[in-house]
Amino acid sequence: MEAVEGLPRVCVAYSGGVDSTVLLHLLLAWRNWANTGKVRPFELWALHVNHGISPHADEWESHCRSQCAAWAVPFEAVRVAVLTDAGDGLEAAARVARYDALTHAQADFIILGHHRDDQAETLLLNLLRGAGVVGASAMMPTKGRFLRPLLEVSRSSIEAYARTESLDWVSDESNANLCFTRNYLRHQVVPLLSDRFPGAVNNLARATQAFADASTLLHELALEDGAGETPLPLSRLASLSQTRALNVLAFHLREQGLRIASRRWLEEALRQALGAGPDRQLAVEIGGFVLRRHQGKLYVCLTETTPLPPKTWVAEAMVPWGAASINAVRGKGVGIGVAHVADGCWEFRCRVGGERLALHKDMHRCLKDLLREAAIPPWQRQRLPLLFRDGELVWVPGVGIAEKYRCGPQEDGISLEFGRSTC
Fold first, then answer.
1. How far apart are CA 69 and CA 74, in angstroms?
2. Which fold would CATH assign to domain 9-205?
3. What span, in angstroms and rounded, lies between the C-alpha atoms of 374 and 398?
4. Residue 79, class by beta-carbon neighbours within 10 Å (0-12 exposed, 13-18 middle, 19+ buried)?
5. Do strands 297-302 and 232-233 pair parallel, antiparallel, or not at all (unpaired)?
6. To the nearest whole number, what is the mean pLDDT of the chain?
7. What is the rounded distance in angstroms from the CA atom of residue 309 to the CA atom of residue 324?
8. Is 359 helix (H, G, I), strand (E, B) or coil?
9. Is 323 in contact with 418 (CB distance < 8 Å)?
């Protein structure tokens, strides 16, 4: 879909249910009001994610398309594959697939229809799963491009609005299936709580703000305690109380996109990181990653350690290398002389042992010693991209370029940079 230049793009996650239908209707009214010049105008469009789980999935997509056509709202549908191999179950897998599709939407803002009852259910669900303060914060009104403007509005108010405006929506039959945990809470647990405590939903939803405030304070404390450093200095962890050290470690892992298995796992990871002898190689696995320790610092690394296959280099600007890349930047007086690159067979490959590099004229040194002196962690050394010309070692990331291949001060050169997305 083509964007209108200069206007913010606002995308509504439109499932066709009552919540997203009301949300789209409200934003449509706001857009029409904006067109009068009273507020800043914006471009509005709807994105429907078709999971393909229900036998009615295509009917719902057709309904959403027709409704958007009637309201003159641009519409787009995305079909996703719901994978349940991770053991999270169908409900969680569908949510992951949906958010992945929304994340790739070409929009400045992505608007979601979650409301106050959803917030209360999310809090209960997370607490029953043993979540800490971060999980108890439930859903945030604003998180990056994602906005939830209805979080303080009740489900009953949304449904009343839909009836008053004679809106048309679809009903997902799976919402009545008590096999899904959220549905069980919604239909069995929350009504019992509300009978006993009439303000239960309001109070639960309000409590998430208190947890969110506490989470923000823990976030700020973690940064003060050094959680923003990568790799993480173990001396900082050792100087803190266990509670603050666990907070730093948890923040550090979350910032790198990792899900913490449990507090017990976190405590064990901290114990091993600080308590194992200096001669021991720490390796604590978490999902597809592993925590490693080297020279007083804690690294989060991919578990994959096997060498990568060789790749020929013909001076292209970027060469993929596992989860990272080798980038070539041209400049004057730095890097490998362009004149050298013009001939010979150039190749990136992993070390096999016995390599030598002449950083200074006629002084070939063992690569093993150079890597150790450069403080490159042992698990990285087997997967580093070494650059060879006709079998001669020319460049090693983090170490340098063989002297005979370096360009002169006034010569054109190519600087190589190895960017590791993970260690």
1. 7
2. Rossmann fold (3.40.50)
3. 7
4. middle
5. antiparallel
6. 89
7. 14
8. strand
9. no
Beta bridge partners of 412: 332
- Residue 155 reports pLDDT greater than 70: yes
Question: What is the enclosing helix (H) or strand (E) of 261?
Answer: none
Other beta carbons within 10 Å of 390: 10
Residue 188 structure tokens:
């069995």
DSSP string, 115-144: -HHHHHHHHHHHHHTT--HHHHT---SEET
Structural element, H or E, at residue 182 = helix 181-184
- Pick from 42, 44, 6: nearest CA to 24: 44
Residue 138 corresponds to which amino acid? A
* Contact present, 234 and 274 (Cβ < 8 Å): yes
**Looking at the DSSP assignment, which residues form a beta bridge with residue 110?**
11, 146
Q: According to the model, what pLDDT value does residue 383 have?
A: 86
pLDDT in tens, 357-416: 999 877 899 999 999 999 888 888 888 999 999 999 999 999 999 999 999 998 999 999
* β-bridge partners, 289: 286, 302
**The domain over range 225-302 is classified in CATH as 2.60.120.1440:** no
Domain ranges of the chain: 9-205, 225-302, 311-419
Strand 43-50 and strand 75-79: the pairing is parallel
Contacts (Cβ under 8 Å, ≥6 apart) of 406 = 335, 336, 337, 413
Neighbouring CB atoms inside 10 A of 66's CB total: 12
Q: Using an 8 Å Cβ cutoff, are 11 and 47 in contact?
A: yes
pLDDT reported for residue 36? 73
